[in-house]
Amino acid sequence: MAEPQEKPVDETTAAPNEQGDPTPDLDAIHAAFEVERAEMRDRLMRSLADLENIRKRAEKDRREAAIYGGQKLARDMLSVYDNLNRALALMDDSLREQQKGLAEGLDLTLRDLGNIFQRHGIELVAPQIGDQFDPHFHEAMFEAPVPGTKAGQIIQVISEGFRLHEHLLRPAQVGVSSTPG
Q1: Is the pTM of this model over 0.85?
Q2: Minimal CA–CA distance to 112: which of 137, 73, 77?
Q3: From the CB of residue 149, how many other CB atoms can be counted at a distance below 10 Å?
Q4: Rg of the chain over CA atoms, in angstroms?
């Protein structure tokens, strides 16, 4: 025996309501569709905005990695610079004359290291005696009252500081006057 087949439903015609008028049901369907469309559009716009923010953040991270990626290596190389400076400072004129080749080699190595630093954006922070102490670039190692100075003036430079572009790698170590103004 053959099973009764259901009539295909024509989706273009709505089922009539109790009064036999299909219009209110179409209006309700249309309103529901508009609400869903608005929600989907809002989700799409938010997703596009999130994607744009992620793209911008990734670009910023890439730029920063290119600029500051060698920060750890640069910081480690500062001790080499310091040691070369100390070695040259210990050489008086008679020792320089006796060890002319060594002195020239140290000078050339220090100059070469300075050129490498400069090429990669590493700048020397070299305060002078009498400059005002700046906690953004200097580290106070001690304070002492020194006649003829004002409070906060640098009275001794212990070691130079360095910065990589805008980031401080190492502050300059200084002694600061505590003499009241």
Answers
A1: no
A2: 77
A3: 18
A4: 37
